[in-house]
Model the fold of this input.
Amino acid sequence: QVQLVESGGGLVQAGGSLRLSCAASGRAFDSSTMGWFRQAPGKEREFVGTISRSGITTAYADSVKIRFTISRDNAKNTVYLQMNSLKPEDTAVYYCAARSPYFTTISRTSNDYTYWGQGTQVTVSS
Done:
């Protein structure tokens, strides 16, 4: 069982940076593939990035590749999303998610994730 709480969102000007954190509780955290997703008003939830259980492998949406970096610190039960060179189109509520520990691979698909945080708002002004 994994419970997730996001933090670090806020208002930033275009070109700025933010680091989102997702604090997890539960012994299975280091056995869980993690993902970040985002949803803008009136739009479908979209994939942002994912990271393997070990933190060795990652994958990103093309729209954020190079600009965003996902990482994790299993000792702190925390996954991060470092966002640089932010654009107004990055404005959204950002969610972290965890797959069931039963599954061992990264995924770009929201339906593959079992546990979700409440989200944190990121607003990028022009």
